[in-house]
Amino acid sequence: MIFYHEHLPYSVVFEENIIAEMLELCKEKMPLETGGILIGKYSEDGTKAIVRKNTGPPQDSKHGSHSFYRGIKDLALLLSNLWSSTGEFYLGEWHFHPNSWPIPSLTDKKQMKMIANDTRYHCPEPILYIIGGNPFAQWNSSCHVFLERELIKLIEDI
Q1: pLDDT below 70 — which residues of the chain?
Q2: Which residues are catalytic?
Q3: pLDDT digit string, tens, across residues 57-98
Q4: Which of 8, 96, 110, 133 is 20 to 30 Å apart from 145, CA to CA?
């Protein structure tokens, strides 16, 4: 799946099965919110983010019907090992809005701004991928990137 910006040279590519893996995690937690992180690399020119892996929720995450707090347990070790072995790194966040639209909430927007400004993430342009609806039936998704101090929606390439 590919998402792109109409005017900026920026796109996000999800490698095969990444979306399916996230949908399975959504089914497991339905009707609660869930999520994790996106991991991958950028193209050499920096205009394409390639999502190669995702995680589910760390053990210390908190799931609610209208909220999700992604924990941090074991993520630093996972990212360190991936960086050492494959050169892959943190690209952003994903989460699930059960029986709702994949529209970033005010909390989502604040989180992306915080991640972009937090040097510990090493991610000035974090990606936010949201799955909404019912993962067993009809669902849809959105992909955003925090660019130039605002969350920008990308267009799905169909």
Answers
A1: 158
A2: 33
A3: 999 999 999 999 999 999 989 999 989 899 899 999 999 999
A4: 133
Q: Are 121 and 90 in contact (CB under 8 A)?
A: yes
Q: Provide DSSP, the chain.
A: -EEE-SSSS-EEEEPTTHHHHHHHHHHHHTTS--EEEEEEEE-TTS-EEEEEEE----TT-EE-SS-EE---TTHHHHHHHHHHHH--EEEEEEEEEETS-----HHHHHHHHHHHH-TTT--SS-EEEEEEE-TTS-EEEEEEEEETTEEEEPEEE-
| Amino acid (1-letter code) at residue 32 | L
Considering only CA atoms, which of 116, 97, 33 is closest in space to residue 70?
Answer: 33
pTM: 0.94
CB atoms within 10 A of CB 17: 10
